[in-house]
Amino acid sequence: TAQTEDVLRLENVTKQFGSVTAVDDLSFTVHEGEILGFIGPNGAGKSTTFDCVSGTFPPTSGTITYRGEDVTGRPQHALVQKGIARTYQTFRPLNDRTVLENIALSQVPDSLFSLSDFRADTEERAREICERVGLEQYASQRPDELPHAGLLRLEVGRALGTDPDLLLVDEPFAGLTSDEVDRTTELFRSLREDGMTLVVIDHNMHGLLDLVDRVIVISFGEKIADGTPAEIRNDPAVQEAYLGG
Ligand code: ADP
Ligand code: MG
């Protein structure tokens, strides 16, 4: 059924940086319409996995399949066009543009970074996204005037600008208050209700387990658990990875 169709499949994905194996023979699938948690201690290889999936660089070996198509090693712009968007742990807004422009510019290729190329529907869509991520009151301000939680929502807004089917979010809860975590959780749930599939990274389990349908846990680049939040909470290997690491 559509519910269990694989959106994304990683098979034996390995990424080496010189002698460092950041991702080690990692295999997992992401199902249509789910919110998947992707957790592991700092340095476990979470962001590197997103880099491979989103086309920042190819994996050293292994296969990445998106909706049945082998997309291993495809460049980021091609993957964005297919519907894969990601956020970065270190925010990357254009600081000389307004919040609204940042979101609007995410909808057009880099080569067209000129506001004169904007069409009316681009701006209208950017305003919708701005409201969606709760930044309407900041629309004409610069990113450096935003509070931390606002920058995070801008990062999500820029990803939404590319109209993704699969949204990869890297550590969205870092540095948020519990109210801001709740608000971010609400946003992710509403995106899923609109039909999006989400993979959400966190380096700890708290906050994330209430949001997600399923969790993959990695440690030293390897998958050590794959299950429901309840299964993960009580998994000895997971506790060991966090306490013993
Ligand atoms: P996580 O996101 O789970 O905290 P990362 O994927 O950022 O972990 O990093 C995994 C491992 O790969 C770490 O040992 C890190 O130092 C290393 N690493 C990540 N990116 C690079 C890089 N560009 N060059 C060399 N080593 C890297
Ligand atoms: Mg990371």
From TrEMBL:
Residues 8-245 form the ABC transporter domain. CDD domains: ABC_Mj1267_LivG_branched. GO terms for molecular function: ATP binding; ATP hydrolysis activity. One of its GO terms (cellular component) is plasma membrane. InterPro entries: AAA+_ATPase, ABC_AA/LPS_Transport, ABC_transporter-like_ATP-bd, BCA_ABC_TP_C, P-loop_NTPase. The keyword S-adenosyl-L-methionine does not apply. Keywords: ATP-binding, Nucleotide-binding, Transport. The keyword Manganese does not apply. PANTHER family: ABC TRANSPORTER ATP-BINDING PROTEIN, CONSERVED COMPONENT OF ABC TRANSPORTER FOR NATURAL AMINO ACIDS-RELATED. This is ABC transporter ATP-binding protein.
